[in-house]
């Protein structure tokens, strides 16, 4: 025989899987089943529902249409109204604003923590993380207490003429932004801290030695090193923020609704499953789009290197 | 920075020396925290166009001194002038000084080309001129084929070259090198030692080199400063520092082991643990303390004792065959003496052999303890 002997005679002769491959399949099977049953099937169902027609009792039914999407764009029984579109845009704006502000707060904070003495570092990180151990709803109620009429913060805002007399800072878009920042700060601080902690300071010194002013040294030697952390944090903050339900529900009131609230209301009170599913689908697509964009940006800024998010 | 360095020596083939690159350090002190003294009053003049080496064990202050020259560290006391200008408090980006870092500190997100162009970009050199100079230095350091690579695709030796090119392309008055060869294997290291020295001679730039390797320091330098405990112990050309160390620390650091305390002195005769040794000249009053150094390679082992030499009787306790030379660990009067003989094909002494040890009085050096 001229053909080399296969280590797996069965595989070579019968065309079936080698023992190694079979072993591999068995070991990934539970994960695959889990993902299929709890992610793939519901997602397919959701996509299906989004293209169905709303029945008289809110149940999805045939035929397949684009009704839900045109409703999302504001075309209803009573002609066009911008309500849903506003909600979409508000979600987008709130997400961008909150993410940007979280970066502004978290970046210097993470740097400050990274240069602290070791015993303080753990304590400061704990202080950043501990609030997120409390239930979201309870934290939102906490902010309601802090921002309602008559509280020092509200009085201060009244003093500066930002709100009218006897008014509170909540419910408002401002309260929602604040709630989002508060909620997601740890998710930005932690990856940034990890990036700062392994910062190679020699690169900063090299930049300074090569005639870079302190500001340029930051931009050319510090910032690129923290970029992976920044991108990871941005994903961790912006994606859940876009679909946030609790914060706008409790701190926003009716006029500060976000996409999450719209979806929830269609599945529950409003009883328009196709509309809710269409909203959820938009959310999903936006998430994928965001992730994709983030990878591209990361790749561009790091000069072609893959940034793992 | 008025004279552009080029890849070729100038017409006369002489070194170009820039006056702007002379360095003067006066009474430099540097402390870290309350107690850690890194530099304890350093006075030093480094000439323009010199290959100058700061040599010492880790923690002796040599790297701190280099960082002060670069502007990455500020002294607590004292002044630093480069080319006659006081730059003690000048920030690093305003000094015409560049550094080759021990870790190379190449920018991982930039290509080799962009790493090399970095300094020129920061200085605002126009793109065409920048390209020309980057190309020139790339040819000079032989980096041509690597220019578009990323730093993580380079070997250690290649990184070292890029780090050198990145600093040289800026044409600084002074180039600082912080143990740039310590991460390389021996063969490459020897090769780059020679290349670095040639580069320096061709460009006529002042190089300040930091190392803890005395052989490296001797091979490359015009002059060496030996540091210990933040204090300069000795400054001089390699030959002087090696053959006439001023104290026991310098002697040991340069690799010497045969140091014997001076006992009683009678004219040109000194009693040590080895026995009585005759020196070339009687010791002056103020020299009658400290130590005597007998370099390993000046000791002769043979049946005949040349005229006027000190003769001692010893036993070979250990023999290390190193190819080009042979090292013997001798016992003389219960004291260990090391001797190195060039391997000239003579019969080697065996362990246990009784040998006659001859030492020329001229080769015995007195130094401070």
TrEMBL record, chain A:
GO terms under cellular component: plasma membrane
Domain of life, source organism: Bacteria
A GO BP annotation: transmembrane transport
Presence of the UniProt keyword Transmembrane helix in the record: yes
Domain ABC transmembrane type-1 intervals: 88-294
Mode of membrane association: Multi-pass membrane protein
Organism: Salinicola endophyticus
Protein name, per record: ABC transporter permease
PROSITE patterns reported in the protein's UniProt record: ABC_TM1
Annotated TM spans: 32-52, 92-110, 122-142, 174-196, 217-247, 273-293
Annotated keywords: Cell membrane, Membrane, Transmembrane, Transmembrane helix, Transport
């Amino acid at each position: 025989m001229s053909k080399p002997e296969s280590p797996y005679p069965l595989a070579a002769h019968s065309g079936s899987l080698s023992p190694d491959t079979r072993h591999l399949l068995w070991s990934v099977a539970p994960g695959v089943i889990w993902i299929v049953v709890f992610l793939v099937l519901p997602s397919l169902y959701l996509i299906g529902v989004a293209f169905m027609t709303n029945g008289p009792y809110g149940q999805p039914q045939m035929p397949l249409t684009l009704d839900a999407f045109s409703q999302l764009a504001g075309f209803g029984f009573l002609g066009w109204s911008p309500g849903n579109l506003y909600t979409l845009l508000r979600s987008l704006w709130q997400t961008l604003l909150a993410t940007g502000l979280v970066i502004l707060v978290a970046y210097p904070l993470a740097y400050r923590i990274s240069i602290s003495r070791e015993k303080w570092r753990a304590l400061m990180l704990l202080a950043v993380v501990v609030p997120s151990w409390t239930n979201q709803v309870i934290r939102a109620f906490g902010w309601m207490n802090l921002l309602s009429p008559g509280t020092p913060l509200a009085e201060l805002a009244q003093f500066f003429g930002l709100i009218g007399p006897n008014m509170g800072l909540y419910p408002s878009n401002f309260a929602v932004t604040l709630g989002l920042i508060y909620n997601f700060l740890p998710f930005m601080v932690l990856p940034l801290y990890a990036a700062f902690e392994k910062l190679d300071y020699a690169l900063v010194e090299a930049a300074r030695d090569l005639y870079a002013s302190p500001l340029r040294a930051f931009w050319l030697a510090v910032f690129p090193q923290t970029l992976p952390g920044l991108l990871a944090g941005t994903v961790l903050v912006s994606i859940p923020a876009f679909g946030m339900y609790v914060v706008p529900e409790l701190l926003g009131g009716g006029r500060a609704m976000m996409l999450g609230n719209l979806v929830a209301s269609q599945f529950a009170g409003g009883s328009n499953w196709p509309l809710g599913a269409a909203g959820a689908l938009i959310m999903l697509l936006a998430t994928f789009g965001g992730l994709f964009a983030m990878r591209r940006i990361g790749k561009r800024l790091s000069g072609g290197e893959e940034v793992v998010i | 920075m008025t004279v552009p360095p080029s890849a070729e020596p100038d017409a006369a083939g002489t070194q170009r020396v820039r006056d702007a690159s002379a360095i003067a350090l006066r009474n430099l002190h540097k402390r870290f925290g309350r107690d850690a003294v890194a530099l304890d009053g350093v006075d030093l003049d480094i000439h323009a166009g010199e290959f100058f080496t700061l040599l010492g064990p880790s923690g002796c202050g040599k790297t701190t001194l280099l960082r002060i020259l670069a502007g990455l560290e500020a002294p607590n006391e004292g002044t630093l002038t480069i080319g006659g200008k006081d730059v003690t408090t000048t920030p690093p980006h305003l000094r015409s000084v560049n550094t080759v870092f021990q870790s190379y500190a190449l920018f991982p997100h930039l290509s080799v080309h962009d790493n090399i162009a970095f300094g020129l970009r920061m200085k605002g050199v126009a793109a065409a001129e920048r390209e020309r100079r980057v190309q020139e230095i790339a040819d000079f350091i032989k980096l041509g084929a690597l220019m578009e690579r990323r730093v993580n695709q380079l070997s250690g030796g290649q990184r070292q070259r890029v780090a050198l090119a990145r600093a040289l392309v800026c044409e600084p008055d002074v180039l600082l090198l912080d143990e740039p060869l310590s991460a390389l294997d021996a063969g490459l290291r020897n090769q780059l030692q020679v290349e670095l020295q040639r580069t320096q001679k061709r460009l006529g730039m002042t190089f300040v080199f930091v190392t803890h390797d005395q052989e490296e320091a001797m091979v490359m330098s015009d002059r060496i400063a030996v540091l210990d405990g933040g204090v300069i112990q000795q400054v001089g050309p390699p030959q002087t520092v090696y053959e006439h160390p001023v104290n026991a620390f310098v002697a040991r650091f340069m690799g010497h082991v045969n140091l014997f305390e001076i006992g009683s002195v009678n004219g040109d005769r000194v009693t040590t643990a080895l026995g009585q040794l005759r020196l070339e000249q009687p010791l002056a009053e103020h020299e009658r303390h400290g130590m005597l150094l007998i370099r390993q390679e000046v000791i002769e082992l043979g049946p005949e004792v040349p005229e006027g030499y000190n003769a001692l009787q010893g036993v070979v306790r250990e023999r290390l065959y190193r190819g080009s030379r042979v090292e013997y660990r001798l016992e003389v009067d219960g004291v260990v003496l090391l001797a190195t003989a060039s391997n000239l094909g003579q019969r080697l002494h065996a362990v246990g052999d009784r040998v006659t040890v001859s030492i020329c009085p001229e080769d015995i050096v007195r130094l401070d303890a």
